[in-house]
Structures are given as C-alpha cells and as structure tokens.
Amino acid sequence: MRCFRFFISFMAITLLAAEQAFGAEGEYKLIQVAVFSRHNIRTPLTKAGSVTDSLIAPGLEWYKWSAPAGELSLKGGLSETAMGQYFSQWLEAEGMIPPDWQPTAREALFYANSLQRTRATARYFASGMLPTAKVKIKHRPRILNKVFLPLLSASSEAFTNEARRELKLLESTLQDSLARAFAELEKVLELESSPWFQVHGRHLVPEPVEIVYTKNHEPHISSGSLRIGTHASDALVLQYYEEPDPREAAFGKDLDYGDWERIASIKDVFIDMLFGLPVVGLNVATGMIDELIKELSAKGRKFTFLCGHDSSVTSIMTALGAYCPERLKAIENRAPLGGKLVFEKYLKDGVQYARLRLIYPGSSQLRSPEPLTLDNPPMICTLKFKGLQANEDGYYIYADFIGRMKEALRAGRNADTGVLPDYLR
C-alpha cells in the first residue's frame, strides 16, 4: 500500500512537471524570449560648437545636458530600469522565470554594442529585471560590431540600382509631409534669424537625396536639407523627453502632440531612407538576424537581451517584412527610444508557436518615468508579417516564423544580386 501511494505521488509530480514543461492543454506556455532593444534616452550626438548650435536664433539655448554627447541620460536610465521591472513581472506571471531569478550563464545573455549608451541601457534593464543577480554585460571593445551596426556587405551595381529605385519610390510619397515637417522645425528654431541661415541663406526643403553605398560602411547621406534637419530634429526630440516643461523644450513655443510628431518625423524619414529600403535593410540586418537565430536555438537559453540602435530595429523589421498595424503612441513612429523587438517562443499541445511584439515606453512614460507594471504596462504592438498568416490567436507556427528569419538572412547575404524575396516585392 505504501509503495502504491508512493507510485501515485510520483506520477502526480511527473505529470505536474510535464505540464509545466509543455504547457497546460489548450494554453500557450511561454518558454523563451529574445529581445533586440534600442537604447533609451541619450544626449544629442553633436557637441558644442557643431552645426546644430548654429541652427537656432540668437538668444535661444539648447538644453544643458549633464552627460557627454551620445551617452545615456539619467532619465533614460530610470526609464530603462522601469522597463526591466516590467519584463520581470511579465515573465514571472507567465511562469517562465521564478521570483528573484538567478540565471546561469547558459540561461541568460545580455549583449550590447560597445558604446556607452547601449551598454548602460543593458545594465539598467538588467538591474530592473534581475536586481540581485550578477549580470555580466557582454560587449566587444571595438565599435564596428556587425551584430549591432548596419554595415553593408553588398556593393554591386545591381544592389545599388535596386536601392536607388526603392529610394525614389519612397521619396515620392514623402514630399508633402516632409515639407510640413521642415516648416514646423524652422518655426521652432527661428531658422531665418540663425547664424546658419545668415551664411547659407536657404530654407530646409524636400529635395532629391544622394546616398552613398560603400562595402563595410553604413549607408551615408553627406549633405542636404534632410541631414541638416535631422540634426535639429534629433536634438529637439531628446530635449522634449528630457526637459520637464514642454514649452521650454520648444524654445518658448506652444506645440501640440501633432507638432512634435512632425518634428520627429524628419529623423524617422532619415532612418527610413538609410536603413528601411528593402534591399538595404536585408543586407545590413544580416549580422543581427543571424545572432537572433542563434540565440533562439541556443541550448538552455531562456532569455536574451541585445542592445543596439534605431537603425538596427528599423533594418530588422524591414528585412523580416514585419510591421505594426497601428500608429505608435510615441512621437517617434518607427523605432522609439527604449523600444524593444521581443521575439517570443511558446508551446501549446506539443507544438511550438512564436510571436513578435514591439514593446516600448510611450511619450508620456518617457517624459515622466513611472513604475511599469502589469496594471500599468508600457506600450505594446503585436507585429504582423507580410506573406505570413497568423492563427486565430495571433501566433505563428514557429517553423514558419524561424523560416522567415532564415529566408531574410539568405536574401540579405545575396543582396548583391539586387533581387528581393517574394514577401518584399
């Protein structure tokens, strides 16, 4: 009888373990997450005395940052810590990690580009998600890391011709919106009174863009209104997030949310033209997609956090044919600061499924960092894929999901042919 009771208890424990491992019948059980994140709020990339300083009228002053150019701000650190805390609550609620998780080196990886803002973002996120764990942030000393930087490996005539064809199509759709955005930007900067205008005597206007494609370098726009406007757009967007008073952030002007969206759109267009063209996005995202595939198939891996840039997020989404079907709740509508592409692997009834979501702090959450919880979450958009059909619950068969990633990787490595995969044509 005692042996029988022992056998029953043993079977119950075994069945419980099986249910925890494979998911209760009819339920999706989260078993792995890989995150590709953009860094959080940083200081402007331009230093004092740069062209950006010359774009504002005398008497106006840019926000006085407490950190050097291009580094994560304190508010950015607070925002990223809150994101890490939210992920901890979410993964615990899903049963993927236990409370106060102490992951082994095999179970979790935190890997960032070597710049201060990306390493610091990974550190703050880890501090929020795993406050008592000893988390090492992996990074390579050299900045030119193809896992995180959108460097070209294609340079053929066929590649360049296809990129230029796609660029012309994109430009044709942006003339009116870009003209309105430039006009809004000039008004805020009081550009006609600026030292830059006194020297150059011209306004910022939509004009044909010349992009240079050189192997082992990022695509490059060397001059023109879009490049000049992007410097100012970037600095204003960061000032909007960092300066508590929105009127002060706009140099004393009263701007509504739509005005800020128009100003931010200049920088979004710049990133789209450089990294959002299909043939270019495919090629420059190969290192990042390759790393994500390796992480999703790594034995024993439960959680991965990779930290890079808006160019990376844009090119990955472009290469995969992934898109958000709704407008983002951030003035940056492509790759918001602190935004994360979250690759999720599930198990249901013995079948693996996947989902890709963009999880990001909304504009108000960036301006006033607040605790992010399951009841007060960050903004979330479930992404869709061109040419792939999700099931009725919004999940994709994992084999199809990873197949799309591998197809994008092959197409990116063969981008010198100038031929796009079917889902991007």
Explain what you see.
This protein is an alpha/beta fold and 425 residues long. The chain has helices spanning 2-22, 74-93, 116-129, 157-189, 195-200, 225-242, 246-249, 257-275, 278-284, 286-296, 310-320, 363-367, 398-413; strands spanning 29-38, 108-112, 137-138, 303-308, 322-323, 340-348, 351-360, 379-382, 384-385, 396-397. The protein has two domains: 25-58 and 69-152 and 281-424, Phosphoglycerate mutase-like (Rossmann fold, 3-Layer(aba) Sandwich), CATH 3.40.50.1240; 173-275, 3-Layer(aba) Sandwich (Rossmann fold). It has 13 helices and ten strands. The strands form two sheets. Strands 1, 2, 3, 4, 6, 7, 8 and 10 form an eight-stranded mixed sheet that branches. Helix 3 links the parallel strand 2 (108-112) and strand 3 (137-138). Helix 9 crosses helix 11. The chain starts with a helix and ends in a 12-residue tail after the last helix. Residues 1-24 have low confidence and may be disordered.
